[in-house]
Amino acid sequence: MIKILVVDDELPILKSLSFALKQDYQVYTAQTGAEALRLLAGEHISLVLLDLRLGKENGITLMRSMLQINPDAAIIIMTAYSSIESSIEAIRAGAFYFVTKPIQINQLMLLLEKAASQLSLQETILGLKDVIRNSLIGISPQMQAIYHLIDRVKDTKASVLITGESGTGKELIANKLHFSSNRKEKPFIAINCAALPESLLESELFGYKKGAFTGAVKDEPGIISKADGGTLFLDEISEMEPRLQSKLLRFLQEGEVRQIGGDNLRVNVRVICATNRDLDQEIESRRFRSDLYYRINVINIAVPPLRERKEDLSELIPFFIRKYAAAYGKQVFGIRPEAMALLNRYHFPGNVRECENIVQRAVLLCSGTEIGPEALNLKYQYPATELGQEDYIRIYPCKTMKEIERQVLAFYLKTNKNSRRETARTLEISERALQYKIKEYGL
Ligand SMILES: Nc1ncnc2c1ncn2[C@@H]1O[C@H](COP(=O)(O)OP(=O)(O)OP(=O)(O)O)[C@@H](O)[C@H]1O
Ligand SMILES: [Mg+2]
């Protein structure tokens, strides 16, 4: 139930309001400002009904103190006189709305509903932002080092280049950098350089003046200007055409945006770039400007592939289970050790993205409360070299297919304790064929 705090110095009013509201709300009451502030601080209440005239106390001042404790509180002012001035002052000072006494309960209920729905919307938005901010997880030393680096550079304007294989979390890191920085209230704008053709990318980024080219029917400030005060995230930077690279370089050097056919605008934008290509190689083959590389690579965050930080699985997998169990409304709470062991041995070519997809599918397929190996469906995706120690087939140097086959047969016969039936099943051949080969190779 939603909590509401009713503040009025007249006890009869407090009593009748509590009575009217207690069906739909959890009601707290206070007769003095001090009491109200104490409740607000202790109970995490976001909905307040406040009498503007509280004995000698100034209701507006009290309201300001309340908003200091909980800036998101929706405060509805009650005023005995339909004094427009004081109500306007209250609204200016941050009140949600006002009602005049004597209070008409139906009207008040409607207003409260409105305030409550705005609060829950606000909470959803805050919650979502929180999810973005906090969802970068992992306990491995490599991830710890990344958190540390983010913390050290977040409030600087230094350009950051995030490198790493596809699906390692580069975009999430860019998000984290912005939303934990002192720029977080300002825009975070992400552009995928691979998604737009050169001409469009240029006009999108730098903006244009009306008439600068056919189709420029009005002035357009461009994304870099729109990100003023905030962060510009250029994803897949390696895909940017050389001509645009020089233009970006000029912007980074001068801090000014040159609109197409227009003015130079001074802007304060933090630039974060990401790529899953090897930029050194791109520079060598002259597809990427080395001077731009030095400009964007002031700080480098190299995100290691998931297979090099398997410790993170112990946090990522429960996190994704919770996420998808909630999304699909399924009662899945964990993963069985055998299934976890399989994942620990898997090499995740698609990194965290692939891990997330695997868990998502497993949650969907899972028939019990824990994910078992059967829900994972990884069997055919392993390269032999990525298997665990116990499954590792050591092939001694040899040339012929026959020789290789012989070693594989010997290995599986041994792991299956010479059971021909098991071995035939593992290798997906008939027992007769196996029998024949055993004879042929003299095993
Ligand atoms: N450390 C992490 N914690 C939680 N989720 C993660 C983490 N790393 C990646 N993810 C999730 O994995 C998915 C892929 O991450 P992201 O898009 O950031 O990868 P990327 O490196 O930008 O990949 P690409 O190079 O393909 O664009 C996203 O759904 C993201 O939320
Ligand atoms: Mg990405």
Q: Could you characterize the architecture of this molecule?
A:
The chain has 443 residues and is an alpha/beta fold. The chain has 4 domains: 129 residues, 3-Layer(aba) Sandwich (Rossmann fold), CATH 3.40.50; 162 residues, Rossmann fold; 79 residues, Helicase, Ruva Protein, domain 3 (Orthogonal Bundle), CATH 1.10.8; 49 residues, Arc Repressor Mutant, subunit A, CATH 1.10.10. The N and C termini lie far apart (73 Å). Helix 1 links the parallel strand 1 and strand 2. It is flat. The strands form 5 sheets. It has a 5-stranded parallel β-sheet with strand order 2-1-3-6-7, with helices on both faces. The chain has a 5-stranded parallel β-sheet with strand order 9-10-13-8-14. Strands 4-5 form a two-stranded antiparallel sheet. Helix content is 47%, strand content 15%. Bound molecules: adenosine-5'-triphosphate and magnesium ion. The site of magnesium ion has 4 residues, from helix 7.
- Round the Cα radius of gyration to an integer and report it: 32 Å
Q: Helical amount among residues, as a percent range?
A: 40-55%
- Report how far the terminal alpha carbons are from each other: 73 Å
**What's the β-strand tally?**
16
Architecture per CATH nomenclature, i.e. the level-2 architecture of the largest domain: 3-Layer(aba) Sandwich
CATH superfamily of the largest domain: P-loop containing nucleotide triphosphate hydrolases
Please state the overall shape, judged from the principal axes of the Cα atoms: flat
Q: What is the count of structural domains?
A: 4
